[in-house]
């Protein structure tokens, strides 16, 4: 598994802004979508191209198109929705497969509550989006679900990863590449990433203050 921590100055700048305590819901949403867009740009770097001849105004011309596999964006509810629109800005025709998981605050285990996948997942590149990879449990469960549905090509886009979560995902699904804006220090005793962002879902949806 390759872990791509994106070093682009725009990504470094925006992830820094996102860490500010007291950030408004509007600003958190805006930056999360912008980072989703920048990470999607990086994650699509190796999509294969094919040459196609089209009718241009000046006559036939050979152009390049993305070949083969079509993309399914896979937001993990809720927080993954915050990145989804940014990814859709770049890939507006992508199909969307939704996974609902809620991390139990006591056990830190992901509890599934929703799954709705598009068809032909075996022919699609899945781009899972979730701002936080903490213990890795939610990402591992999502990859498990996608594989059970036949998906064979999966990438994970996250804003912040804990080293513990990367190791856990790597141990179970070594072929899944990660594209992230930051690899942080560690998890605290409550399973939160340090320094991290706090609770990304609550910040995006305005369900908790502070
Ligand atoms: O790597 P893990 O230890 O599994 O933790 C990460 C998960 O926790 C958060 O979601 P949460 O369950 O809080 O749901 P929410 O998005 O609805 O707030 C986050 O968005 C990830 O999905
Ligand atoms: O740091 C963390 C860990 C899990 N979920 C979050 O929203 N933040
Ligand atoms: Mg949450």
Automatic annotation (TrEMBL):
Activity regulation summary: Allosterically activated by GTP.
Phosphoribosyltransferase domain residues: 7-207
Alphabetized Gene3D superfamilies for the sequence: 3.40.50.2020
InterPro entries assigned: PRTase-like (IPR029057), PRTase_dom (IPR000836), Upp_B (IPR034332), UPRT (IPR005765), UPRTase/APRTase (IPR050054)
Keyword presence, GTP-binding: yes
Positions annotated to bind uracil: 193, 198-200
Cofactor binding notes: Binds 1 Mg(2+) ion per subunit. The magnesium is bound as Mg-PRPP.
Cofactor: Mg(2+)
MF-aspect GO terms: uracil phosphoribosyltransferase activity
Record-linked Pfam families: UPRTase (PF14681)
Listed SUPFAM superfamilies: PRTase-like
Top-rank lineage group of the source organism: Bacteria
Keyword Transferase annotated: yes
Annotated metabolic or biological route of this protein: Pyrimidine metabolism; UMP biosynthesis via salvage pathway; UMP from uracil: step 1/1
EC number(s) given by UniProt: 2.4.2.9
Catalytic activity: UMP + diphosphate = 5-phospho-alpha-D-ribose 1-diphosphate + uracil
Binding site for 5-phospho-alpha-D-ribose 1-diphosphate: 78, 103, 130-138, 199
Key words, A-Z: Allosteric enzyme, Glycosyltransferase, GTP-binding, Magnesium, Nucleotide-binding, Transferase
PANTHER family: ADENINE PHOSPHORIBOSYLTRANSFERASE, URACIL PHOSPHORIBOSYLTRANSFERASE, CHLOROPLASTIC
Function: Catalyzes the conversion of uracil and 5-phospho-alpha-D-ribose 1-diphosphate (PRPP) to UMP and diphosphate.
Family listed: Belongs to the UPRTase family.
Protein name: Uracil phosphoribosyltransferase
């Amino acid at each position: 598994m390759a872990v791509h921590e994106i070093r682009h100055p725009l990504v470094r700048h925006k992830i820094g802004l996102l860490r500010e305590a007291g950030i408004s819901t509007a600003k958190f949403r805006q930056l999360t979508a912008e980072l989703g867009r920048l990470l999607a740009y990086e994650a699509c770097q190796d999509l294969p191209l094919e040459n196609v001849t089209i009718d241009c105004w000046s006559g036939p011309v050979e152009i390049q198109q993305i070949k083969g596999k079509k993309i399914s964006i896979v937001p993990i509810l809720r927080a993954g929705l915050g990145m989804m629109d940014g990814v859709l800005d770049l890939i507006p025709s992508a199909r969307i497969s939704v996974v609902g998981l809620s991390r139990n605050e006591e056990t830190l285990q992901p509890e599934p509550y929703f799954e709705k996948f598009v068809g032909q997942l075996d022919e699609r590149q899945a781009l899972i989006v979730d701002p936080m990879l903490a213990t890795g449990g939610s990402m591992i469960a999502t990859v498990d679900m996608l594989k059970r549905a036949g998906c064979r090509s999966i990438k994970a886009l996250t804003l912040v990863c804990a080293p513990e979560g990367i190791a856990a995902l790597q141990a179970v699904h070594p072929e899944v590449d990660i594209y992230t804006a930051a690899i942080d220090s560690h998890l605290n005793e409550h399973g939160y990433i340090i320094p991290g962002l706090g609770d990304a879902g609550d910040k995006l949806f305005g369900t908790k203050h502070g």
